[in-house]
Amino acid sequence: MTTRASACRCFVAALAPLLIALAPTAALADMASDVKSVNDGWAHITYEVKGSSTQTKALDQLAAQARSVVARYPGKAEPLLWAGIVTSEQANRANFFHKLGLATKARDLIARAYAIDPRAANGGAALSLGVLYYKVPGSPLAWGDEDKAVKLLKQALAVDPNGLDTNYFYGDYLLAQGDKPGARSYLQKALRAPHDAGRPVWDMGRRREVRDLLAKAT
Fold it and tell me: How far apart are the C-alpha atoms of 209 and 175, rounded to whole Å?
């Protein structure tokens, strides 16, 4: 019995380093799954749900889900980023009195993600923060900042130069500045981005937005 107990302890001791090594990997897989659930929920609401009141209620529920993911993985950039993206979508659909408050909350969440990892989500943290800085009005009305926006958008492009989102939003920014030729160049590049089979709703919806914007840039 003593020999068997000793052998068992030796086996457990030998297995312990492997279990310790596997634990972070499992935790990262769980986080990726939870973040993707928020990501897919956002795409479904944005591109498939009809009716503003239905969308608003669905976004409220998704925002609560996103907050729980942030709490589950403290100090991680991706949950903060997606909580910020969902909040930004709430701001986009909110009335005048709530729009700026929600946009500010979104900025703060995404800024926290960016501070943890500027390259988070393949440049998504820099991109999302840059988008807010050019979409929100500047001083004295609010805190929008074109210089910060351009810097962040270019950072995102450096990380993901051929991406659908990075080229779409830079094209959108250039079109807002009146640069139609520059906008067309980036929007056409966005349409050449590889399709993402893991995010089909977002992929189809974003490409539709790119084509709509490209029509305005001609």
Answer: 14
